[in-house]
Amino acid sequence: REQIEQYHEEIIALLEQRNATLVAHYYCDPLVQELAEKSGGFIGDSLEMARYGRDTDASTVLVAGVKFMGETAKVLSPEKQVLMPTLEATCSLDLGCPVEEFNLFCDAHPDRTVVVYANTSAAVKARADWVVTSSIALDVCDYLDRQGEKILWAPDQHLGGYVQKQTGADMLLWNGSCIVHEEFRAKGLREMKAMYPDAAVLVHPESPDAVVELADVVGSTTQLLNATETLPNPQFIVATDRGIFYKMQQRSPEKLFIEAPTGGQGAQCRSCAHCPWMAMNSLERIKNELLSPANEIFVAPELITRATIPLERMLNFSN
Ligand code: 13P
Ligand code: SF4
């Protein structure tokens, strides 16, 4: 523990020297989240991270998360330096939606409004009319449906399917998925619910439909976290990355948080309830990056110009 405290202090001093702020996602290692808190930085869901990155006065934003989060920060604040602990931290949704194929898909359906999930590259966002995160996907698609618009949705098929079902919107879906959330299983969850009859079930909408059906609350990471405080249940079964347990437990020390069951087994399951790319954001990498930045995010100016439009639309919509 003493060693960790020292590490934290060293990194906080480096952040100050560089006029940098640390913004972390809830799926990061608890020690990284703790550092974000102690340093006066920020922890949030992907929408809040984007807004914080844009609004902060710091000249450097160090993003502990995955690459699309760093790119979003850069697009929204091209004048800031955006650093990441590693550029290898990607996302299966981003990987599963290469821009060349995505452009062909859009070209084939020119009559549709293009809505992309934030978990995509800046190049994919540059082709979109709207960017959404899980916290506002339903509201934006519902709004577009009411305007009579047909939607082309990418890349997460589960979130897309959930939104389609809830809103009744006409949506054509890309077939991407999150390797972490697609591992949650309805059968095991039903058994667990029977074991914990007082527990509320919280599910991130990147999970399969059968799992979402069993949820008491479906929402973004922040929405799930808030539910742990507003619901009176003493126990919660949580179908999302276990990194979020740090904040849940901190806010409600008296409550019990249980990981929802997954299909994989133990060490063989690289992605069971924990994102392997989020896990790359170690304290050591954060410190090294501040000592000698090697993982700066750069986005081509023409992509910044185009991707800013749907990203700002998202931020304005959610205000
Ligand atoms: P949130 O927008 O809910 O933070 O989700 C981001 C993410 O990557 C979920 O897997
Ligand atoms: Fe991507 Fe899933 Fe990891 Fe989130 S948890 S960053 S959606 S792979």
TrEMBL record:
This is Quinolinate synthase. Pfam families: NadA (PF02445). Its cofactor is [4Fe-4S] cluster. Its EC number is 2.5.1.72. It is an enzyme of class 2 (transferase). The gene is nadA. GO terms for molecular function: 4 iron, 4 sulfur cluster binding; metal ion binding; quinolinate synthetase A activity. GO terms for cellular component: cytosol. Pathway: Cofactor biosynthesis; NAD(+) biosynthesis; quinolinate from iminoaspartate: step 1/1. It comes from the Bacteria. Keywords: 4Fe-4S, Cytoplasm, Iron, Iron-sulfur, Metal-binding, Pyridine nucleotide biosynthesis, Transferase. GO terms for biological process: 'de novo' NAD+ biosynthetic process from L-aspartate.
